[in-house]
Design a protein that fits this description.
There is one protein chain. This protein has one domain. 80% of the residues lie in helices and 0% in strands. The protein is built from 6 helices and no strands. It starts with 5 loop residues before the first helix and ends with a helix.
């Protein structure tokens, strides 16, 4: 063979049978390369999934905190309005008691013919009470049986403290309802955070398996759950 030309030696080398060991080594090397390529693709998908989960979790937690802040603020505001309403209600009751008391003294003095005393008590009427009193007197209540029992039953009677108390009560109820709504929205984002935590757990669990089919199955489940979580994030109102 050493005396053969170069071309003949090359042809003979090509014609020599390849050993079974070499064939098996080549096939195994090809399968290993394919397996490594699949694992690398799965790891890329896992990295993308983890990145999306991290961003979505951060946003969901941020919205939960914001809505919790709105809830606390609204509840505090509601408590403030309740206190103001109670204060105004107390003042209103005191003023109505004063109006009834001074009117009773005026009526007694009027019935006993003590005009000077009646005028004195009349001057003691509150400014808000005077229009109702004048309208009641205009009905000639001493001779008109259809007249209301007193000025506080007249449509002209006003009590600013009572009206203020009613407004504060409405504001307190509205603020409380807003706080309850904010709490419900925060709970929604909190549930979504739990869903994202489940996705994170399953993704971490998938990385423990060496079989690509198992990892792909778990990643598919994670992807579906992540789609639901992202949909909720888009759908939920933002603070």
């Amino acid at each position: 063979m050493n005396g053969c030309p170069v071309g003949v030696r090359a042809f003979v080398a090509m014609a020599e049978p390849v050993s079974t060991h070499e064939v098996a080594h080549t096939v195994a090397h090809g399968h290993a390369g394919e397996h490594t390529g699949r694992l690398e693709l799965i790891e890329v998908c896992e990295a993308i999934l983890l990145a999306l989960v991290a961003i979505a979790t951060a946003w969901s937690g941020y919205q939960t905190g914001k809505w919790d802040g709105h809830q606390s603020s609204d509840y505090s505001l509601s408590s403030k309005y309740r206190v103001l309403a109670n204060t105004a209600t107390t003042l209103s009751g005191q003023q109505r008691l004063y109006d009834n008391t001074t009117f009773g003294f005026w009526l007694q003095a009027k019935a006993e013919g003590r005009e000077q005393d009646a005028k004195l008590f009349e001057r003691r009427f509150r400014p808000e009470y005077r229009p109702a009193f004048k309208a009641w007197i205009a009905l000639d209540p001493f001779h008109n049986p259809k007249a209301p029992p007193g000025p506080i039953f007249m449509p002209q009677y006003r009590n600013a403290a009572a009206e203020r108390a009613a407004v504060r009560e409405q504001q307190a109820s509205h603020a409380y309802d807003e706080g309850t709504t904010a709490r419900e929205k925060a709970d929604k984002y909190l549930r979504n955070t739990v869903l994202l935590a489940m996705v994170l757990f399953l993704t971490a669990l998938a990385q423990k398996f060496k079989f690509p089919s198992v990892r792909v199955g778990l990643l598919t489940v994670c992807a579906i759950l992540l789609v639901f979580a992202l949909y909720f994030l888009i759908k939920y109102p933002r603070a």
